[in-house]
Amino acid sequence: MGIPMEGDKIQIHSYKHNGHIHRVWEETRVLKGTQSLVIGGNDRTTVTESDGRTWITREPAICYFHARHWFNIIGMIREDGVYYYCNISSPFISDDEALKYIDYDLDIKVFPDMTFILLDEDEYEKHRREMNYPDVIDKILKNNVDKLIQWIRGRKGPFAPDFIDIWYERYLTYRS
């Protein structure tokens, strides 16, 4: 397993439980890379969907991936504050091709005032049945929804008041 190094440009690949590619982010700059944690930044990067459609992200984002947590967190920097999009997912792995994870449908959107909503519960249930998520995975995922909500309420990790600002400043040093 390759560990992304600070300064590297990497792709991010999201898969579904059945092994099919879900989404690819073309370019993310690694701001911190260890065996257990990758923090990256991107802005106006091309995203390719599984059906081949592409789109470009609209704002700068700081991405947080952990090798022991079943979620990843994207802090999107907008004029009215930081919005977070949290994917309930497998822990990441990394190889020479990309940083990779399995997307398990459930998402939490967090607003600048730290209110949040759980999204895509119906999609999760549909895919859980169709792809036969094992009961142990279902339990892990639901426990990690709870853990993520605790992080949001406790302003832990990427939800800490200065986290996004600090890493965005670091990201800007690579853009000059």
TrEMBL record:
Mg(2+) 1 binds at residues 87, 103, 107. Pfam families: DUF402. Residues 18-154 form the DUF402 domain. The keyword Ligase does not apply. Its EC number is 3.6.1.15, 3.6.1.6. Belongs to the Ntdp family. This is Nucleoside triphosphate/diphosphate phosphatase. It comes from Bacillus timonensis.
